[in-house]
Specification:
Elements: E1 7-11, H1 16-27, E2 31-35, H2 39-48, E3 55-57, H3 68-79, E4 84-87, H4 102-130, E5 133-138, H5 151-170, E6 176-183, H6 207-210, H7 215-227, E7 232-235, H8 241-248, H9 250-260
Parallel strand pairs: 1-2, 1-4, 2-3, 4-5, 5-6, 6-7
Helix pairs in contact: 1-7, 4-5, 8-9
Bound molecules: NADP nicotinamide-adenine-dinucleotide phosphate.
């Protein structure tokens, strides 16, 4: 599928993977809608695009579920249509279960799961009416197997797989595609922004994230999968093998993950 003139709506476009994806998709001639909470940073990203005039900034907070019908109308009126919604925005966690408040779990589920399915559900009737559309969902390898300190994040990302696998089945007849993108470690601010047990941001970078894939390289691989309308893709370094180990050797994966962590 060619991206030229396609309208691609990216959440979490103010930073990391979403920013890199916007820049790469812009180079391929896509018309872009850039969403996130931080309007100033979205405008900076817009300026960095090869053709800033071919993009719009549309601020949104995924925790504000009531706003989605209005936001979808605004997205549709930006260019008259939306071809691809990239549900990329998300927030991670770095805290032990025993030290994490339920309010932190609520926030992780609200932003990562309810916000993502809510926005997609608000756009779905438009895709059904037009008998076409593409939902891309950035989950994580943590949507396929667990790792200490990320219990709520893992729960929310696993839940996304369940929901969007069903959406793909229920709406295949409407020619609606779903691509689940599962990153391994990518060098972004995800660890700095991760919630700790009291809900404050960790603020420090993790070694694994700092040594992760470059976001531009990641975005190129992700666009390749989107253009091929793949059902699911794992993108990362050797950590990707965890997804296969979970399926075939879950006991071994359990031991290896514990050995690689200091909990
Ligand atoms: N980097 C990795 O190693 C890695 C690994 C696996 C999965 N992922 C996934 O990749 C996606 C992108 O993360 P990243 O690595 O690029 O991290 P990032 O640099 O922290 O970017 C996260 C993005 O999400 C947006 N966001 C956060 N809360 C939001 C909210 N309530 N409403 C709207 N937007 C919100 C942020 O924008 P504002 O602050 O402007 O709202 C930001 O643009 C996430 O879904 C993450 O879980 C990343």
């Amino acid at each position: 599928m060619e991206l030229k003139d396609k309208v691609v709506w990216i959440t979490g476009a103010s930073s990391g993977i979403g920013k890199a994806l916007a820049q790469q998709a812009g180079k391929k001639g896509a018309r872009l809608i850039l969403s996130g909470r931080n309007t100033a940073r979205l405008q900076e990203v817009q300026k960095s695009l090869s053709d800033p005039g071919n993009s719009r900034v549309l601020p949104l907070d995924l925790a504000n579920l009531e706003s989605f019908d209005r936001i979808v109308q605004e997205a549709l009126s930006a260019f008259g249509t939306v071809d691809i919604l990239v549900n990329n925005a998300g927030i991670s966690q770095r805290s032990l279960i025993a030290e994490t408040g339920l309010d932190v779990y609520e926030r992780l589920m609200h932003v990562n799961y309810l916000g993502t399915i809510g926005l997609s559900k608000a756009l779905l009737p438009y895709f059904v009416e037009n008998q076409k559309g593409h939902f891309v969902v950035v989950t994580s390898l943590m949507g396929k197997f667990g790792s200490p300190l990320r219990s709520g994040y893992c729960g929310a990302k696993h839940a996304l797989h369940g929901f969007f696998d069903v959406l793909r089945m229920e709406h295949e007849k409407d020619s609606i595609a779903v691509t689940l993108v599962c990153p391994g470690f990518v060098n972004t601010d995800i660890a700095r922004n991760a919630l700790t047990g009291d809900g404050s941001a960790q603020e420090n970078q993790d070694n694994a994230t700092a040594n992760g894939m470059d976001p531009d390289r990641f975005a190129r691989k992700m666009l390749h999968a989107i253009q091929r309308r793949k059902m699911e893709v794992n993108i990362g370094g050797k950590e990707v093998s965890g997804a296969y180990m979970k399926r075939f050797f879950p006991g071994l994966l359990h031991k290896l993950v514990l050995r690689s962590q200091v909990v």
